[in-house]
Amino acid sequence: MGKKLLSLSITIFLLSVIIYTIYTNLKESTNKSVEVREEDLLQEFVDIPMDDTTITYQMIEEPVVHDHEEHAHGEGNLPSEVRTLNSEAPDFKLQTLTGETVKLSNFKGKKVFINFWATWCPPCVDEMPEIENFYKHHSEKNNVVVLSINSTDLETNKASIEKFVQDFHLTFPVLLDEEGAASYAYQVLTIPTSIIINEEGNLVEQIIGPVTEEMLIDKLSS
């Protein structure tokens, strides 16, 4: 009886050792697998490309959108684009800030320089003193009419236009395009845009971007 109990005890002990060994091996194998997977994930994260484009994109703020529909102000420091034209200038009739009515066709026999602008446009601000200087010192002797057309349909209020004119001491006529009809007729999509019309009332050039006094002297001098 004693020998049977001893044999049974030894058998149970051996089975316990075998079970424990199997359990330990399985546990170690599982841990190694988890560690390897963690290393793989870490390596995948490290290998994610983070080039300059991605970083720049993340730092870009939401653009400021003006409710200006088809019009857009020009970018500073960019050269103006000059397009040659050869067709009859569309006639228009607009009011000035002082309430006077100006009709383009009344100026046949004179060269006409038309400038489309808005108070919120930085390049327009830059070019205004240049246009004013040309108007004061060169327009009369060169038989040139200067008409400044404000894109009033894109302005917040007329008071801002009046303040702009006063701040820059503008003396040439400022016309109000309240419905955007003149801008549409002359296909003005970018501000500032200027138009040169010859003595016969025909379009000569369209200048997209700011102008300078020197440019106007070169293009409008007799």
TrEMBL record:
Domain Thioredoxin intervals: 83-222
Domain of life: Bacteria
Segments traversing the membrane: 6-23
The entry's keywords: Cytochrome c-type biogenesis, Membrane, Transmembrane, Transmembrane helix
Coiled coil: none
Cytoplasm among keywords: no
Biological processes annotated in GO: cytochrome complex assembly
Record-linked SUPFAM superfamilies: Thioredoxin-like (SSF52833)
UniProt xrefs under Gene3D superfamilies: Glutaredoxin (3.40.30.10)
Compartment annotation: Cell envelope
Any one GO MF annotation of this record: oxidoreductase activity
UniProt GO cellular component terms: cell envelope
The protein's name: TlpA family protein disulfide reductase
